[in-house]
Amino acid sequence: MTEPTRSFDDTRRWVTEGTALFTDGLDRLETGDFDADSQLPGWTRKHLLGHVAANADALGNLISWAETGVEKRMYTSPEQRNADIETAATRPAEELREWYVRGTRELDEAMDRLTPEQWAHEIITAQLVTRQASDVPWMRAREVYIHAVDLGVGIGFADLPEDFLLALVDEIRTKRGLSDDDLRAVEGPLPEIAAWLAGRPHQLVGAPELGPWL
Predict the structure, then answer these.
(1) How far apart are CA 107 and CA 36, in angstroms?
(2) Domains of the chain listed by start with CATH number
(3) Residues 185, 200: contact at Cβ < 8 Å?
(4) Rounded distance between C-alpha atoms, residue 68 and residue 137, angstroms
(5) Among candidates 5, 25, 53, which has minimal Cα distance to 149?
(6) Phi, psi angle pair for 43, to nearest 5°
(7) Which tens digit of pLDDT belongs to each residue from 86-129?
(8) For residue range 151-182, what is the model confidence (pLDDT) as tens digits?
(9) Which residue ranges does UniProt annotate as crossing the membrane (predicted)?
(10) Which pLDDT does position 184 carry in this prediction?
(11) Are the CB atoms for 198 and 130 separated by under 8 Å?
């Protein structure tokens, strides 16, 4: 597998394209379909949509931090984040959709306002990792692309761009502590490798089971 690279421009493009794909997934659903299970264990599609909507707001907090210099964390606490998702699952589907659309628009507008100097501002993720604000588009791109698959509406990892999948595989491999030899031991097409590494259903034969991710 070739060594992937990802540029800032790549991540901004992936946010746009991934958001369009996630929105297309939502458009395939009738109102009653949102109460059905997603492909994430224990989550309905309402849980999933609420999570993606809340993620836009949370990443917007990081962009605000970079823009103003005033610290603004993604979430008040992990417990509050989880409680908000559970509350979202009880809300009407159309209300959740409107939240998602509004949050997505506001995040895009906020990112468009940042200067190069502000993109270099340090922020802290929900996992308490210090990164530059320029990593926020990548964080959002992962959310919308992978959760578009999790909606369970017929979108698969094969529908995601190859350059995004290469960057995703590289990141997850590193985070899971897997070597190039570990990957070479598992043969299969790139989308299936990405699904396996992301802890999603896949068609690989003999691939060791991995825990959940994202």
Answers:
(1) 28
(2) 8-160 (1.20.120.450)
(3) no
(4) 18
(5) 25
(6) -115, 130
(7) 999 999 999 999 999 999 999 999 999 999 999 999 999 999 99
(8) 999 999 999 999 999 999 999 999 999 988 88
(9) none
(10) 82
(11) no
Per-residue model confidence (pLDDT) at position 5: 72
Residue type, 89: A
The type of residue at 83 is: A
SS3 130: strand
* Angle CA 193–194–199, to nearest 5: 100
Half-sphere exposure of 147 (CA within 13 A, CB side): 25
- The encoded tokens of residue 161 equal 């761009």
Q: Is 202 left (phi over 0), alpha (psi -120 to 50) or beta?
A: beta
Residue 102: C-alpha distances to residues 27, 97, 98 (Å): 16, 9, 6
